[in-house]
Specification:
Number of domains: 2
Mean pLDDT: 77
Radius of gyration: 26 Å
Low-confidence stretches: 127-132
Strand order of the largest sheet: 1-2
Largest sheet: 2 strands, antiparallel
Strand content: under 5%
Distance between the termini: 62 Å
Oligomer: single chain
Number of helices: 9
Number of strands: 2
Helix content: 55-70%
Shape: elongated
Length: about 250
């Protein structure tokens, strides 16, 4: 069993075990709960949050976390440390009042996580790429096929043209591509869209990965990709010129 599969199953077992133990340790009506039950409920309520660590088995998530280390790594770690210090320094009676807003925030956070998890699963299911053997990969297009090379990528042709345009001035990794495309095209590619297009472009020989000492994986444009992009942009410019000329003649728009 892979780590990606083991993590959610471990989370399910921990959650089920916490619920069963809570029932077994529940005090009779009117009696205060034992300390073990209090700790169990406090720890069990955090299992849901901790289970999001499974997302770090996804390469795209790890890359995003490295690019946003302060928000995704340092702030969460700092909050855990601060909470531990507060629990040790504040009297139990006073600390109990702090738990009220904490659990209120946690319940609100659960709902956001549920929505985000559903959205992420939808994106992954939509853009999941099949694993191909080297023998299954498409052959690099010949010069005669390069004129329509981008069109052969189907729904990825639009994002692919943006990626190739971004790489035309040098190699970039995924996050740098996203920011550059957003700056010149006003479009922010979703991770699923970006990595599907990168996979297709690399399979068609239009881009290639560059060795790097960093964990991030940069890509650069190949000669095949440059030719395909030039042909694609020339065709788009011709369409744009015709459209603008007709708008100017019929609608007085320039």
């Amino acid at each position: 069993m892979t780590a990606a599969r083991a993590w959610p199953w471990a989370t399910i077992l921990l959650t089920a075990g916490a619920l069963a133990s809570a029932v077994a340790l529940a005090p009779p009506p009117g009696a205060p709960p034992v300390r073990a039950l209090s700790w169990l409920l406090f720890t069990g309520s955090s299992v849901h949050v901790a289970s999001t660590g499974w997302l770090f088995t996804v390469p795209a998530v790890r890359a995003y976390a490295r690019e946003h280390a302060v928000r995704c790594l340092w702030i969460p770690v700092s909050l855990v440390v601060i909470a531990a210090i507060a629990a040790a320094a504040i009297r139990p009676a006073a600390f109990g009042w702090l738990l009220l807003p904490y659990f209120g925030w946690q319940l609100f956070h659960y709902q956001k996580q549920n929505i985000a998890g559903s959205a992420y699963r939808s994106i992954v299911s939509r853009y999941r790429m099949p694993v191909m053997n080297s023998s299954d990969r498409p052959a690099k297009p010949s010069p005669a096929d390069e004129a329509g090379a981008l069109e052969t990528l189907g729904r990825s042709s639009g994002p692919a043209s943006l990626i190739l345009s971004s790489l035309a001035d040098g190699a970039k990794h995924g996050y740098a591509l996203t920011k550059d495309i957003e700056s010149f095209a006003g479009v922010r590619l979703a991770p699923g869209t970006l990595y599907e297009a990168l996979s297709r472009l690399e399979a068609h020989g239009m881009i290639e990965a560059v060795e790097s000492n960093d964990r991030r994986r940069p890509y650069r444009l190949t000669a095949t990709g440059a030719t395909a992009l030039s042909t694609y942009l020339q065709a788009q410019r011709k369409v744009a010129e015709v459209g603008l000329r007709r708008l100017a003649g019929s609608w007085a728009l320039t």
